[in-house]
Structure formats: C-alpha cells, structure tokens
Amino acid sequence: MGKPKKYKDELRKFTKDLGIALFGVAYVKPIKKEFLFSDETLKDLDYTISLGLRLSDGILEDVTSFPTKIYFHHYRQANAILDQIAFKVSNFIQDKDYKALAVPASQILDWEKQAAHLSHKKIGEMAGIGFIGRNNLLVNPEIGARFRLVTILTNMPLEPDKKLKTSCGKCRSCISVCPAGAIKDKKEDFDHIKCFEKLKEFRDKRLVDQFICGVCVKACKGKGRE
After folding, report:
1. Cα separation of 41 and 43, whole Å?
2. Which residues 6+ apart lie within 8 Å of 170 measured at CB?
3. pLDDT at position 86
4. Position 90 in a domain
5. Three-state DSSP class for 109?
6. d(Cα 180, Cα 171) in Å, to the nearest integer?
7. Residues 109-155: tens digit of each pLDDT
C-alpha cells in the first residue's frame, strides 16, 4: 500500500471515530491563488482534507420559515466541534512530520462579499463529498445539505477523491420554502443579494445573532429521503 492511500485510510478511520460523517481529499494546487493566505503559508500545502459533521434532524425539523434559537445554538456547536476535530487531525498529521493548517469552520472575513479564507463547499465538491445544489449549498446524495464543513490544508501526500457526477435532478424542495425567494430552478441563478438581505433581517429581528437561516438546509434531505 502506497503512502498516499495508507495515510488517507488512517485519516478516514481517525475522523470517523471522532464522529465525522463525510470525508474527502482534494488536490488544490491549481486553485490556491483563491485562498486568502500568504504565498509563504500556502507554499507546499497542496492537499486538503474536507470533513462533514452531520446536523441533527430533530433540531432541523423545528425550523419552519425562519431560524430558531435552538438551531442557532446547534449551528454554533457544530462549528466548534468541527474546529476541535480539525485541531486533532492537524496534530495527527504533524505527528507524522507533515504540515497541517486547520481552516475555521465558520469564519467570514467579509459578509457583504461572503469572503472567507477559502470556500469549504468548493473544497468539499472537489473532494467528492457532494455537489453544489440549487440552494447554493453543498449537497450530499445521502444526507442532503444537513451537515457542516471544515477543511485542513496539508503537504501530506494523499490520494485525491473524484468529484461526484450528480445533481439535484428533479428535486425542487428548497425553492418553494426559501423565505427570500433566492433559490431558482437553475443553480447559477441563485440570488445571493436576496439571501443576504433575508439573513440580515433575521439578525436584526434578534431571531439569531449570526447570518444564518436553516430553511433550505432542512428542506434538503438527500435523494434517499426525498
């Protein structure tokens, strides 16, 4: 067994034991210029590990046309758990004498431009965890959009996964329930401005203290549970 596959298998088991539901690897050297890190930081970090933590169906079922307090708490806890897991994965990698950089699960640098250190969902798509759906979220065929993501950059040689060759198909569950009317039939037509304005409205009404919604996350259950 070559090192790239051996390391990948070890990491998959390690993260599964920590509660991770989705695991994928991507070779990202061609897109590193998109990342908001210095060239020196990114110099030889050409691989990424994408991890998905499944959200609670019970908590999501409580979401109707707006985010609930318990969903907000759950959302924050999921991000905190992912950051802790990414910390442990980074140490696992460093113990094998490789570099690792854990990118926070939810740290937006510019909300208006929706800019972050990198796009977790783009990395997740490249790593074969899911595809970009009409809801502008990463969608996994089995559990839909009901998960949160974190990314670890590394120079550990790993066997990359392949992008999924699938889509939302006939499913349009998210379109009618979107409180902003931002989701369209074509994913390219997703209205980022309408979505952001609705998130600001939820925050301004003190429903939640962060720009989140959860309505389309609830609607997107995966093909096995449509």
Report:
1. 6
2. none
3. 98
4. yes
5. strand
6. 19
7. 565 566 678 999 999 999 999 999 999 999 999 999 999 999 999 99
pTM of the model: 0.93
CB of 160 closer than 8 Å to CB of 47: yes
Q: Residue 184's domain spans which residues?
A: 3-221
Place of tokens 């329930």: 177
Q: CA 114, CA 196: separation in Å to the nearest integer?
A: 9
Residue 188 to residues 24, 74, 120, 128, 138: CA-CA distances in angstroms?
Answer: 25, 29, 18, 20, 14
Closest to 120 in 3D by CA, of 175, 79, 179, 71: 79
Structural domains in the chain (count): 1
Q: How far is CA 33 from the centre of its chain?
A: 20
Residue 152: φ, ψ to 5°:
-120, 125
- The answer as to whether 226 is a domain residue is no
In whole angstroms, what is the distance from residue 216 CA to residue 184 CA? 12
* Amino acid at residue number 8: K
> What distance in Å separates the CA atoms of residue 149 and residue 151, rounded to the nearest whole number?
7
Q: Which of 20-24, 35-39, 71-75, 187-191 has the lowest mean pLDDT?
A: 35-39
Is the predicted pLDDT of residue 188 greater than 90, yes or no?
yes
**Local structure of residue 102 (DSSP, 8 states):** E
> Could you read off the pLDDT of 58-111 as tens digits, one per residue?
999 999 999 999 999 999 999 999 999 999 999 999 999 999 999 999 876 565
Distance CA 99, CA 199 (A): 37
Share of the chain above pLDDT 90, in %: 85
